[in-house]
Amino acid sequence: MTLLTLTGICKNFIQGEIQVRALKDINLEVDEGEFAALVGPSGSGKTTLLNIIGGLDAPSSGEAHLNGTDITRLKEAQLSDFRLFQLGFIFQAYNLVPVLSALENVELIMVLQGRPAAERRARAEHYLDLVGLGNVMQRRPSALSGGQQQRVAVARALACGPRLVLADEPTANLDSENASALLDIMYKLSREQKTTFIFSTHDPRVMERAERLIKLRDGRIESDEVVAQPGHAALA
Amino acid sequence: MTSNLAMFVFIAWRNIWRYPIRSLLTVFALAGGLIIVILYSVLLEGMTRQMVTYATDMSTGHLQLHRRAFIDDQDLYATLPWSYLNAAETALPAASVAPRLYAAGLASAQASSTGVLIKAVDAAREPRATRLLDSVRSGTAELGPASDSTDGLPRANVVVGTQLAKNLKLQVDSELILVTQAADGSIGNGLFRVAAILKPVDTAFDRTGVLMSIDTYQSLMSLDSGFHELAVKTPDAENLGTGQALLQQTLERLAREQPLDELGGAAVVRNWREINPTISDMLKLSQSMVVVIGFIVVSLASLGMLNTMLMAVHERTHEFGILLAIGMKSRWLMVMVLIESFLLALISAAIGAALGTWLGRYLQTHGIDFSGTMPDGYDWAGMSFEPVMRGYLDPGHVVNACLIMTLVAMLSSLLPSWRTVRLKPAEVMR
């Protein structure tokens, strides 16, 4: 079943006096439960496309439907709710709230969602356990390694029960071992939770494990292919 | 929403201690400003109350009774009959009343002479109504007949003001000659013994005042028809309206029963605020001054808050972008920054109020002692003050100062918090 449909998405920026066409007529469909990667060199438009899907940026033209809702027509407050209840975000630089512990960081979104205290505490502990951080959940980000922080970010993204998780270069700051472990966790959770993942990456380690590779170049989709045997398919 | 608010307070509290030195500097600046405002208010209130106490306890009393012509022209003949004194005592049994008579004269001692204000008081009643006769610097405030002079001339005791004593080189036991125009048109004169010299109680009286007994006055001035002034001290200084109204009713009744001559005008009761409008105005002014000065001091201190919050918002722009991206509404971010400012203001208010109250209590109990350099006290705005400047701590002023500080601090954090509303997550995360 189609979760995301992008139709004729264009995005133009003005840089100085020059108009930059970051995205050109992007048409894309992503089904529920897909583990897809947006790949391409720097400047190809991956992050811009991810931002538009996440409602963080508005396209210059085109429509983006997620679960039947046209994101491009939502107002600011509606977009906040849309992001809060429908999406999970994982960023390149971990981006946890530094004054909160791992557990509190995961709970934060659920507080905003208005979930009861007992439920959010149970869910936060559950997801931190799933990403292997059950023993350090009271630590603040400064007391966690980069890999651990990114796993907290994964737990935060999933604990709020999103339809779609958007991950922008999630392994860019991680070493091979941590990157591999993180991808395994994300893939495992996507299978278990039936959650759709879309990554932007130019990291070959991520590309190897994606089930679908959507290649962008100069703001256009250059190719869109389903990978027959992703690198960690054995985990599924 | 409650859950959100609790979380925002929690995050704001943690954020405050993220940069403890910066937060503490802000707290010290705000608390310091608050302490200055509280101490300023304590000293001003203390001076004002001392001013009022001096105005009422020392000489004026809470209420005064005169005839209109005496108020307007200090008319020597505008006296109230002695029966009015008894009537006033009957009307206000809990109050203390003291009759007075006044006259202008010329005082001479040795080779100097100067114009003086002669004031006659009842030595028995006056101490119950005012502290005038208690404020003696040297000698004993005896009024009435004194021993004869070395030449065998009769003398009466007088008490003089400090500056008058200096000007005429008078000491206790010095002789003083008073010359005046008596009520019957004759030249009244007499030889007097200085029984005591008063402390400075009132700048005008200090320079020109000569106190004597009513008997001595009547003999000097040939005036025994009544008195010029009746000072009244009531038990409830804060609520003078009732006593004033009661006395006015008594006067109206007396005016019907014993009509006064028309030249002296009607009898009038005034409270101390009406008698000393300058002091009354200064009271109001001092209250306004506390607010104005407080606002200025706290506003300056709040620049620290503005700087802290601008820095905090600037440094956390990326973090705010993340929070917006994951679904936090921009108005919640604004609330979070405002809560942070509010908590800083609250800590500052608690520290400032505690220290300010402690220092204020010290000033109230011990005061600032200027007696080493100014043993006679000091003059300010035409008023005399005791050499020990005592404060008065009004809890209401402390609360108001805290509220002003919190309000100004919150106002100064509006700009930084408003900046969060305009943040675009995609832009700040780029």
TrEMBL record, chain A:
GO terms for molecular function: ATP binding; ATP hydrolysis activity; transmembrane transporter activity. This is ABC transporter ATP-binding protein. Pfam families: ABC_tran. Residues 4-236 form the ABC transporter domain. Belongs to the ABC transporter superfamily. Macrolide exporter (TC 3.A.1.122) family. Keywords: ATP-binding, Nucleotide-binding, Transport. InterPro entries: AAA+_ATPase, ABC_transporter-like_ATP-bd, ABC_transporter-like_CS, ABC_transpr_LolD-like, MacB-like_ATP-bd, P-loop_NTPase. One of its GO terms (cellular component) is plasma membrane.
From TrEMBL, chain B:
The keyword Nucleus does not apply. It is a multi-pass membrane protein. Residues 292-425 form the ABC3 transporter permease C-terminal domain. One of its GO terms (cellular component) is plasma membrane protein complex. Keywords: Cell membrane, Membrane, Transmembrane, Transmembrane helix. It is found in: Cell membrane. It comes from the Bacteria. The chain crosses the membrane at residues 21-43, 289-312, 332-355, 397-415. It holds the Pfam family FtsX. Residues 23-248 form the MacB-like periplasmic core domain. One of its GO terms (biological process) is lipoprotein localization to outer membrane. Belongs to the ABC-4 integral membrane protein family. LolC/E subfamily. This is ABC transporter permease.
